[in-house]
Amino acid sequence: MAIENGKGGEIGSSNKYSKFKAKMTGSLPVVLRVAILLATGGATLGMGLNKQSKTAVVAVVGTTPISQTFVAQFQDTPAFVYFVIANAIASFYNLLVLVLQPHLKGKAHNIWVLIFDMVVMTVVATGAAAAASIAELGKNGNQHARWNPICDNFGAFCCRGAIALAESFVGSLLLLILNVLSTVTLRKNVAAHD
């Protein structure tokens, strides 16, 4: 009788929606982790392989120009080194969680994964912030300290560094979203068992 009145279709439709919602909610953390892995991995490689050389004439002795090659590379700045290490840690951690995901079932594992996710998010965010402050200094210099900007001489180095910074900030934002999603899911699971 309910099927004849059209109510049966609504129940079936609601059931399909619930299954779809559950499937999407279950796969969203995996999708986020893959996106985080791509963002932080790209940031690691982008900054880790970032190097530019430039040869300039520094003096002229008689009629002979004396030139020197200047190199800009991430290893010259501790903030960039920390940036590369932070993003490499985040990439490795998320790859490890993706590989071990089928074995990480249960509340105890979920709590530890959530705690490590928060730590990794903090590490990535601080690495990106430290690198961004040095990048700003490289772009604009500091007139009070008489530090000249370098991006007018090493444009490709600064451009690749900016792309790596953007990837790292995206990875940090995705880690924040993953942490919020994991906290809400864990809270719902705890509330359901109470």
UniProtKB/TrEMBL annotation:
Keywords: Cell membrane, Membrane, Transmembrane, Transmembrane helix. Its main location: membrane. The keyword Ligase does not apply. It is found in: Cell membrane. GO terms for cellular component: plasma membrane. Residues 28-173 form the Casparian strip membrane protein domain. This is CASP-like protein. It comes from Ananas comosus (Pineapple). The gene is LOC109712824.
